[in-house]
Structures are given as structure tokens and as C-alpha cells.
Amino acid sequence: MLVSLAVGSCGGNDEETGTATGGPNSIATTPDGDIGGGRGGITLTEVGTFEAPLYVTQPEGDGNDIYVVEQGGKVLRVAPDGNSSTFLDVSGEIVSGGEQGLLSIAFAPDYADSGLLYADFTDRDGNTRVVEYRASGDRVDTSTGRELLAVDQPHPNHNGGLVLFGPDGKLYVGLGDGGSADDPDRNGLSLDTLLGKILRIDPRPDGSRPYTIPADNPFVDDPEARPEIYSYGLRNPWRFSFDAKTGDLSIGDVGQETLEEIDLVGRGEGSGANFGWSAFEGDQRFNDDQDPNGAIPPVLTAPHSDGNCSITGGLVVRDRSLKTLYGRYLYGDLCVGELRSFTPRPGQPASDDVPLGLDVDRLASFGEGADGTVYAVSISGSVYRLDPAR
Predict the structure, then answer these.
(1) Mean pLDDT of the 89-116 span
(2) Which domains are delineated in the chain?
(3) What is the enclosing helix (H) or strand (E) of 112?
(4) What is the model's pLDDT at position 18?
(5) Looking at residue 113, what DSSP letter applies?
(6) Are 125 and 187 in contact (CB under 8 A)?
(7) pTM value > 0.90
(8) CA separation for the pair 76, 70 (Å, rounded)
């Protein structure tokens, strides 16, 4: 199933500085008290509204400002009072709309000293690029761009789109299976393509290669496999995360016809992990010509019969002020918009999945501040912060 993130092309505001529309404003609150694990006492506070926002992040040691990624190609730096300024603008280098555009950024772990960050976007030819930039002061000069990855995309959907540094300091890159439907090129389980994978690289150059292959990558000694591959068997890992406390890896993998799925493995267990697509969709057999052996089943599936259409992988909440959510995995779906959570147990089916009683229209992603603050992003325009109810 193809679900467009946006209708038509979206662009950022041409103004260099401004104020995000709106401002801190509590719009919805769950019932007071814990009325069941993971529910109660949570408020959605609107941080502001933007042009098709897709992601929120924050580097270590950079104060209280957050960075909002807009699909049209801009990253806005947003102060706590709502004042914003353009931090990065690649709108002239990308194609935007549907599942394409500027999809995420990741700040280097040493960003406070190096000024380095990484952007994942769809270039004007419709292909995926991961580019390193260097910030200077409050702005990124795009002339500092250094291309790390360029991946041909046979179709305009299933681009993946997340770049994220793991607890090991390596850069992880999510790529979908190349699109169309039903994995026509059987990329998901094929180890000779980067499509349908999560990659793991060190962004430092290695001779003529613009990045370094970590020596402990799972397929580094396999001549028939791409050494960048960390995990495989994925349809469209739009959003994934590492638990800030345990290092466990969770993946929201967007489904095809009937099921959305959440995959969860312990720290380091994603190395060489096969998550089953397209031998399986969720926990159900899919393409009969694909080998079902060795696939790791999801810990949770969300059926399309309940209105789900595109899983929005979330994160394990480590904000201690959110007492009823602390240590629980938070997620949702683009079409349903209902925020839900469960206790994450790697390799074990979710047994206590519950709704929070909060909804976000067209939920595109979750974000996490350097201090653990949790954000929810609506591609319709609003970015929310999860706060304890007062």
C-alpha cells in the first residue's frame, strides 16, 4: 500500500527569520492519573506550526533550541519562545511531495565541537542522497556539503529516510525496498543491494570512499553482500530508534496490504538481523518465492482493518517527567493518529499495548530532545511536545 505523506509539493517559508505560527499551547490532556499502564497524565503542548514538518531533533550541548525538518527542504531552528530562523536550506536541490523531500537530519555526536550534521533527502532526479554539512554559527553553508551516499531509487515511494547516530557513534541510514508494490525486484532479502535495509557506516572518509565501513559490520567479509548493511528484510523503515538507556533497536516498518509492524531487538542484535520482508508482511506469509527461514517476527502488528495505513515508529520514553510513559515504547500511525504505547521486551510480543487517549492528525514522526523531551510531529503542520498534565 502506498500512502503519500503529503498531497503535492511542499516548500518552506522564504523568510530567514520569524516566529513559528502559534506558540506553546496545551491542546489535549489524557485523563489524570494512571488508568492503565502507559495512560494518563499527559498533555500535548503545541510548539508551533510549520510547512509539512517531518522530524524534530536536537544536538547535545546546544541549549534549548530544537530543529524542525520541513519536507520542502528547510530546517528551522526554533527557540523556546517560538522564534525561528532558517538553519539549513536545500530546497533548490530536492524534489518534494509524496514520500520524497528532506526527510531527516542527524547531528554528529561531537557537533558542539565539529559542527557536523547529516541530511537525508531526495535529489532532483528522485534518488536518495545522504550529505554531510558543517554549521557555522547559526546557519549551515550548503557549499560545505560532502556527499556520503547516493542511492538510485527505481520508484518514488519507499525511500526510507531516517539518518540517526546509534549508541556506538556510528551513523545508521534507513532505506526502503525501492518502491512500487510487493517488492517487485525482491530487494528486501537481497544482500547485494542497499534497498530494504538499515545501513551502518562511519561517516569519516576512508581513502577514496567518502565513509568508512565498520570492521564489525555483519557482512563485511561476505563478497556477495554490501558491507554497509546492518539489518535487512525491510519494506520501508520510515522511522527507527535506539533506546537511550539500553541501546535496544526498534523499527516501524510500513506494511503493504494488511499489516503494519514494529520490530524490536536488543542492543547489538540488529547486526545481521533479517526482519522478513518480503517473505512476510508482518507475521503473515507474503511472497512465496522468498525464503522464510531466519526471519525475526515483529513484536507488534497493526491491521489495516483498524484503519492503520502507515506505521509511525516511535521511541522508548526516557523523560522522567512523563511518569506513566517512562520506559514504554511510544508509537502511532499516519492515518489513525492515535498515540499508543507498550512495554518493550526485545523478541517478545507486546502484551500491554494501550492508547494514550491523545491523537495527532497525520502523525509523521516522533522526536527526542537531548534531555529526553519527546515531540510528536504532524505533517499537517503542528509540532507538539509531550508534557506532564498540570
Answers:
(1) 97
(2) 20-388 (2.120.10.30)
(3) helix 111-114
(4) 42
(5) H
(6) no
(7) yes
(8) 8
b/e string for 61-81 if b means 16 or more Cβ within 10 A? eeeebbbbbbbbbbbbbbeee
Entry field: residues in the chain: 390
Which residue is associated with the grid cell 510480543? Answer: 349
Kindly write down the DSSP assignment for every residue of 35-104, as one continuous string. SSTT-SSEEEEEEEE-SSEEEEE--TTSTT-EEEEETTSEEEEE-TTSEEEEEEE-GGGB--BTTBSEEE
How far, in Å, CA of 261 to CA of 240, rounded? 12
Q: Scanning the structure block, which residue is given the C-alpha cell 536545500?
A: 90
Q: Which of 386, 381, 385, 377 is nearest to 313 (CA)?
A: 377
Rounded to the nearest 5°, which phi and psi values hold at 93? -110, 0
Whether 317 contacts 373, CB under 8 Å: no
Find all residues with CB under 8 Å of 356, minimum gap 6, and list them: 30, 38, 39, 42, 325, 330, 338, 339, 340, 341
Residue 97 corresponds to which cell in the numbers above?
Answer: 511531495
pLDDT for 63 equals 80
pLDDT at 24: 56
Residue 273 pLDDT class (50, 70, 90 cuts): very high
Q: Give the contacts of 221 (CB within 8 A, at least 6 positions apart).
A: none
What's the CA gap between 234 and 342, in Å, rounded?
22
- Where does the pLDDT of residue 62 fall: very low under 50, low under 70, confident under 90, or very high at 90 and above? confident
| pLDDT at residue 1 is higher than 80 | no
Nearest 10 degrees: Cα torsion 272, 273, 278, 280 = 160
Set of cell numbers at residue 360: 495527532
